[in-house]
Amino acid sequence: AAINLLERLCLTWMFFFMMCVAERTYKQRFLFAKLFSHITSARKARKYEIPHFRLKKVENIKIWLSLRSYLKRRGPQRSVDVVVSSVFLLALSIAFICCAQVLKGHKTFLNAAYNWEFLIWEAALLLFLLRLASLGSETNKKYSNISILLTEQINLYLKMEKKPNKKEQLTLVNNVLKLSTKLLKELDTPFRLYGLTMNPLIYNITRVVILSAVSGVISDLLGFNIRV
Question: Which InterPro entries does UniProt cross-reference here (predicted)?
Answer without folding.
Answer: PHTF1/2 (IPR039775)
